[in-house]
Amino acid sequence: MFRYINAVVFAFLITVGLFIGMKTLIVGGENTLSEPIKGRVLDFVRLKKDENVQKKERKPEKPPKPEEPPPEVPQPQMQTDSLANNNSGLAFSANLEVDSGLEGGLALESGDGEYLPIVKVAPIYPRRALSRGIEGYAIVEFTVTKQGTVRDPLVVEAEPEGIFNQAAMEAAKKFKYKPRVIDGVASEVAGVQNKITFKLNR
Question: For residue 97, what are the contacts with CB-CB under 8 A and spacing of at least 6?
């Protein structure tokens, strides 16, 4: 019985102490909240992303218009009566005379007709004759083939002999002709002669 009374008294004292402590805490908390806040306060504001994003489409610039094409360069003439220069600085001319032995009319159309010279290449002046100042000529005889090329060139006459023979034959090999056409068929022409004159320009 004595223990029971002591326990009740002890519990009562603890309860009163708890109430007093709680009251003290409450009064002290009110004083603390009433004081102004010291220091800086940072406010964080979260902004919403702009959902309406404007997209600009860039169109490629148009390339400038191309300039007008340059005018076409005229084709060089096929036939040459040339005036040539060599390493020694001396000028000379080679006169390619008209072929002998032309018979009938000259026809450029696709029908029948005699052979016709198209390309004549000036020969190379021989160095020996050039250094000695020798002039002269050579008559070359050859065959015009069905394709218009020259075959079997041969010097039949030359002045002086043996000086211009090789140069004249080499040049004749490069000649081009419109072949002779008979009844719509190309044919060879033998015995065609061409005189090539070698002359220094002084």
Answer: 194, 195, 196, 197
Q: Which residues contact 85 (CB under 8 A, 6 or more apart)?
A: 91
Torsion (CA) 165, 167, 168, 174 in degrees, nearest 10? 140
- pTM tops 0.70, yes or no: no
C-alpha to C-alpha distance for 200 and 136, rounded to whole angstroms: 10
Looking at the domain that runs over 83-200, which CATH code has it been given? 3.30.2420.10
What pLDDT is attached to residue 41?
57
Pick the more confident residue, 101 or 99: 99
Matching residue, tokens 């040339």: 82
- Picking from 97, 92, 90, the residue whose alpha carbon sits closest to that of residue 172 is 97
Supply 1's token pair.
């019985």
**Secondary structure of the chain: what % helix, strand, coil (to 5)?**
25, 30, 50
- State the DSSP code for 93: E
Half-sphere exposure of 197 (CA within 13 A, CB side): 9
β-bridge mates for residue 151, sequence order: 143
Q: If we measure between CA atoms, which residue out of 125, 119, 104, 124 comes closest to residue 194?
A: 119
Residues belonging to the chain:
202
